[in-house]
Amino acid sequence: MSQQKPPLQNRVDPWGVLHAVQARGTLMGNRGILHDDQNRIVRHWAGKAWLSCVLNPPFEQKRSPFSQGTYSELFFLDEATAFAAGHRPCRSCQRGRYDAFKAGWAAAHAASNPSADAPTWLPIAAIDAVLHAERIGPDRRKRTHPSALAGLPDGTFYAAEGEAWLVWRGQSLRWTFDGYQRADAPPAGDEVAVLTPPSIVTLLRSGFRPSVHPTANLYN
């Protein structure tokens, strides 16, 4: 009897950290080539374009994860998790979602900072640069952003006592690799450490809604 191969270190949590667990999630992602010829993670990103992709892109049906010379496949529970980690939709396999994200980004940021100089269109490289600055701190670790819990829009993640919590439909749901759980969130105090980059929080506040794992809707 053949033994099951151990999982690759490519499951992403809301901090953007890579783990080796069996749960696959509902989205794939890409930060460039992160693995070596032994399928070990040797870097945590290779460029500022961090993407979220459909699980099985039609043009890559025959790929094996961590093939040599190609990008390292990452996996997310859902789009809200990918946003918290600092990823945005891929243009190639999620063109409709990519277009909606880019248009929503421009509109939301123009509305939040009205001026004659506010751009109505940005090249995606400029958006990627903003996201990279918001997700990675000077120590090359996840950057969090303080904010009052009250008023955070649906789809936002925050951290409390070492766990990640999703704001969704008036409540906080605890994140796991397998889905969301209803639990008593720790007292938040005046502010929380927000994991979702501020520019994406601005987008969510404008009404843009991320897709979430089905378990998020079991408690409403």
Descriptive notes:
This is Metal binding Ada-like protein. This protein is an alpha+beta fold and 220 residues long. Helix 2 crosses helix 4. The longest helix has 18 residues. It has a domain of 123 residues. The strands form 3 sheets. Strands 7-12-8-9-10-11 form a 6-stranded antiparallel sheet. Strands 5-3-4-6 form a 4-stranded mixed sheet. The protein has a two-stranded antiparallel sheet with strand order 1-2.
Structure described in brief:
The protein is of the alpha+beta class and about 220 residues long.
What's the overall geometry? Answer: globular
Secondary-structure element order, N to C: EEEEEHEHHEEEEEEH
Q: What does the average pLDDT come to? A: 90
Low-confidence stretches: none
The fraction of residues assigned to DSSP E strands is 15-25%
Number of contiguous helices: 4
Assign a percent range to the helix content.
10-25%
Protein name: Metal binding Ada-like protein
State the main characteristics.
single chain, 220 residues, alpha+beta, 4-stranded mixed beta sheet, 4 helices, Metal binding Ada-like protein
